[in-house]
User: Which sequence fits this backbone?
């Protein structure tokens, strides 16, 4: 029977790089799956992305605002940690190449994800933007008063904290949660189940927020579909 090992990461935490390396050394997989699609992988590899004006045209103002805000935050936090966002995913690909291990890109096309967000009501998207901005302001004030950050960004957040954040997102922003989390959980799990018919041991590098949902879905029967993007 195939074994699937989920490795939860934070895209800006250096601990994530260590987790990926340790999991590969320990499990010795014959496939490494990463939370990327081929489009995102190629863009990250050459450090390119679609222009802001093109994204605005494709997504519309409210969806573009969500995209731009999260992209800006991730880049800013990554810079403060001296690490490129998503470095653990690229590290997993490089490790696979060095060890001659098959790589699979299991995530949904990022363009489809943002098109799904486009269908979410403008009110819900604006509420999310306001929530994030407010949260950043509170965190900044806390850091100034206590002279220490709210979280240690060099480490992957504790599982309990992640679960609390996912529960809040699911309850207060259900449609955005569906587009960003639950639909992608299902997509990635479907791909992993297909891969399990070909490989004995799979190490899957995923964002920590996907771990619990994917674990639950992995216990269900697989759907038949074509093999995920592989390299």
Assistant:
């Amino acid at each position: 029977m195939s074994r699937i090992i989920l490795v939860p990461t934070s895209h800006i935490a250096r601990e994530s790089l260590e987790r990926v390396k340790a999991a590969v050394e320990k499990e010795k997989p014959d496939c490494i799956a990463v939370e990327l699609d081929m489009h995102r992988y190629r863009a990250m590899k050459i450090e390119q992305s679609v222009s802001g004006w093109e994204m605005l045209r494709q997504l519309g103002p409210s969806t573009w605002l969500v995209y731009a805000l999260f992209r800006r935050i991730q880049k800013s936090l990554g810079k403060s940690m001296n690490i490129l966002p998503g470095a653990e995913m690229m590290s997993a690909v490089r490790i696979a190449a060095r060890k001659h291990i098959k790589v699979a890109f299991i995530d949904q096309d990022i363009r489809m994800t943002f098109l799904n967000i486009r269908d979410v009501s403008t009110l819900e998207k604006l509420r999310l933007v306001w929530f994030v901005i407010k949260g950043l302001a509170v965190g900044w004030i806390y850091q100034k008063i206590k002279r220490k950050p709210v979280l240690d960004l060099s480490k992957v957040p504790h599982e309990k904290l992640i679960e609390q954040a996912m529960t809040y997102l699911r309850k207060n922003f259900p449609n955005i949660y569906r587009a960003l989390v639950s639909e992608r959980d299902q997509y990635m799990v479907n791909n992993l189940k297909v891969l399990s018919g070909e490989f004995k041991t799979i190490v899957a590098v995923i964002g920590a927020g996907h771990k619990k949902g994917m674990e639950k879905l992995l216990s269900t029967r697989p759907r038949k579909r074509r093999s995920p993007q592989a390299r």
In short: The radius of gyration is 18 Å. The first helix runs from residue 14 to 27.
